[in-house]
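Worked example 3 (structure in, sequence out).
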């Protein structure tokens, strides 16, 4: 079924899923490997926000969500290439969009408007992938 990747729509679905897999697996694995460093930075980042007492719980939740979104996107890309099925890639893209929305919310609450703005293209890509996979 790999010949299906010659179809432009299927190819776009495949490479976008791979992109999301790289993005979210790298980010999530970084948080696992350097949990204490990330926790320390985030405690400082949210020190003046209403979320300051929830930082550890938020870090755990976003880490799990990122690793799961990345894994679903990776397995989904393989599924697209091998069988043409798109369900796992779609779940990965949907979870990725929710992850970015949560990160965006946190950045806005922390009044890190530049950090929030950086997330917008990733959010657009996630939503575009959901739409791509809906066809």
């Amino acid at each position: 079924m790999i010949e299906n990747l010659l179809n432009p729509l299927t190819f776009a679905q495949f490479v976008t899923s791979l992109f999301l897999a790289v993005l979210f697996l790298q980010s999530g694995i970084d948080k696992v490997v350097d949990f204490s460093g990330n926790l320390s930075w985030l405690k400082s980042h949210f020190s003046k926000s209403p979320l300051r007492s929830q930082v550890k719980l938020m870090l755990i939740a976003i880490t799990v969500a990122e690793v799961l979104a990345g894994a679903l996107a990776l397995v989904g890309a393989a599924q697209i290439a091998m069988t043409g099925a798109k369900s796992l890639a779609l779940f990965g893209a949907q979870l990725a969009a929710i992850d970015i929305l949560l990160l965006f919310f946190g950045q806005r609450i922390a009044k890190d408007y530049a950090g929030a703005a950086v997330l917008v293209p990733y959010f657009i890509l996630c939503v575009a992938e959901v739409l791509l996979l809906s066809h």
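Notes: The chain is about 80% helix and 0% strand. The CA atoms of residues 69 and 92 lie 5 Å apart.
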